[in-house]
TrEMBL record:
CDD domains: NAT_SF. It comes from the Bacteria. Residues 1-148 form the N-acetyltransferase domain. Signal peptide: none annotated. PROSITE patterns: GNAT. Residues 169-194 are annotated as: Disordered. It comes from Paeniglutamicibacter psychrophenolicus. It holds the Pfam family Acetyltransf_1. InterPro entries: Acyl_CoA_acyltransferase, GNAT_dom. This is GNAT superfamily N-acetyltransferase.
Amino acid sequence: MLPIIEYSLSYSAPTGAERDALSALTLTPDARWHERMDHARFVVTALHEGTRVGVGIVHTSVTAPTMVPSPMELGGMFVHPAYRRLGIRQHMAEARLTYALSMGGTPITVIDNRNQASWGYYERSARWTPEREYTGYVTGLPMTIWVSTESSWYRTAMGLNPLVPAQPNTVLPHDASPQRPLALGPDQDNAVPA
């Protein structure tokens, strides 16, 4: 029997005990993690029987050399290993993308090129396109910036009708993008963070 997972949404940076609890889910809650948390605009938390088992954030502390306007990075997503392969990552990814699009930002995500599962997911997805590869400032390793094909910036650049920014909790119309729905990614059992 699958556990019942509940999701909590927050539109501000977590502080105090909440921040400590979310940081405990990460592999390494380092200075970069806390910088992302300081600039969080949206946090989705997965809960099982009141225990935090996953977290995903949208932040504006973008250090990747992206050229897109108003980037909102979907960075810092972690799921406890015991709760992977249950669709939690998919649900949190969808919530983060919807939030960034509803705010009129350009959703980006940065993938460590060593993370083959995430790389494969984004490479197969019609919802993301690579912008560029660069050397990570902290790691010194190859990273790739992926841009949402559903963003107003990308849609305008491709000659499509741009999305109209909405407010938090607004569901974007299903016909806003002809792309297929987000599929469950194989990266849910990978130890390298997304």
